[in-house]
Amino acid sequence: MYAGWNLLLVVAVLCGQSVAFFWRFNSFTGVVSTNTPELEGSLDANKRVAIIGAGASGSSTAYYLQQFAERSGIPINITVFERSSYVGGRSTTVNAYGNPLERVELGASIFVDVNTILKNSSTKFGLRAKESGTESHEVLSIWDGEKFVFTQKDSDWKYWDIAKMFWKYGLVPLRTQRLMQSTVSKFRKLYEAPAFPFKSLSDRALDLDLTSVTSLTGEQYLKNNNIGPPFSTDIIQASTRVNYGQNLNTIHGLEAMVCMAIDGAMAIDGGNWQIFDGMLKASNATVHLNNTVSSISDHKGRYSVRTTSNDAITGVSSTKDSVFDTIVLAAPLQYSGIEIEEGLLKHTPDEIPYVTLHVTLFTSSRRLDRGFFNLPPDADIPTSIITTLQPDQVPSNYTEGCGKPGFFSISTLRTVINPETLEKENLYKIFSPHALTSEFLGDILGIPIPANLSSISPASGDAITWYYPHVWQSYPYELPRVTFEDSALARNFYYTSGMESFISTMETMALMGMNVAQLVVDEFNEVMEEEGLAEEVQKIMVEEITPDEL
């Protein structure tokens, strides 16, 4: 008998099995048993996956995991935990005036033609793209804090039309477009084999010669390709500021190029979050909203996940422990508040600085004030204002890069109906690095605004009739770098937020979700092969044991 056990131990070691696997093997054969109470899910025959976060990457992971597992014949059970009350993460809407018929994007607003995951998914789920812009003539202007350095009418959502810029900037816009297309085409290789799937984003970026772009600031990358002021500072920097709250001298070259991929901009009627809601529904995952994951620990070689939830009716808090084969952390670890058992991860993701972005929505019957922007009385009032820096402005550091304009963008989204007065009003959206004051709002509207903004209501009769501020840790400061967090932090433990320092968009997070889903299935297949080998060893061992030995 002892010879048989020794043979098994030798085979297990040679096959790279851990002591934890050896213990599970013994328990499986019935030779050793325990009376330890089992946690929920510990006896589930299906592969159990916990996804923490129901944003773009978490929803995409669930969606593709179900598809890839089904193709591989792997029975799977997917559970998604989301601490918020909604799906979509930083892609979510709020209701102007509290009216569900007047939804407005609070986070990620648009996606573009090259975002194939979002485009294909929205088509598959039958979601309709909404019409862009306001009902009136659109005017896009770029403001440097004193004057408008560029103005374009009928801008639509493209921000600008390259062809209309030739008269001012010559062939530089065309050169920029070609550089963008060349750079983005390298990134697009991440969607397909042999680059897909990838455990190491750093290795793939190096393979695709993208680290030569991420290692430089946008300013350096553009200069190396004969693209400079005034086009780079007027147009490209205005785009990096409205998209990422960062200037060309700090944001890395790849993200700067992504800002120029603007063809086919669109948004889903009713909110882009519906794409991710559709993904979760199609995945057949069990989704727990208002569930906060507080800790993750080891449980006999698997993962024990502790969650806390509050009853919506009683408000009573409850705690629950469940066991999973695989964890996917689909949110930045540094903001998750999750306590992970020491030694559980091979590597803990570094904390990185994120942009604190203030998004302010409000309604008013008033147009923007021409006087504030030094416009003559007969000038068109811009419907969208994005900002850049004056040529001699150099921010003291990357976190204080807003400069003299004081905001990143002001957009007149559309007209809406005030439910109290039944009058049409303008719906505005402002991106800024700091909370807006009533003085600033009064200045841009040309009329005093009450200091107590929280008292504003549709029936107030004030210049502002609805007001909704929100603060996001919206995306990392995309500083130049050549290494990124790996997709796999430990065996059966995956992380999606490493993508954000590379490219932070809804599409790229959905791509990382698809990538992680394939890695999870690949790892399950490897385990199944190992278990198949273990069964062969077991069969040999049982044949060697005589009844007398038992």
From TrEMBL:
GO BP: any one term: prenylcysteine catabolic process
A Pfam family reported for this protein in Swiss-Prot or TrEMBL: Prenylcys_lyase
Where does the source fall among the domains of life? Eukaryota
**Molecular function as annotated in GO:** lyase activity; prenylcysteine oxidase activity
Entry keywords, A to Z: FAD, Flavoprotein, Glycoprotein, Lyase, Oxidoreductase, Signal
Leader sequence range is 1-20
Cofactor requirements of the protein: FAD
Kindly give the InterPro entries that the UniProt entry links to this protein.
FAD/NAD-bd_sf, Prenylcys_lyase, Prenylcysteine_Oxase1
Q: Which Gene3D superfamilies match?
A: FAD/NAD(P)-binding domain (3.50.50.60)
Q: Residue ranges of the Prenylcysteine lyase domain?
A: 153-528
Regarding protein family, the annotation reads: Belongs to the prenylcysteine oxidase family.
The name of this protein is: Farnesylcysteine lyase
This protein's species is Lachnellula occidentalis
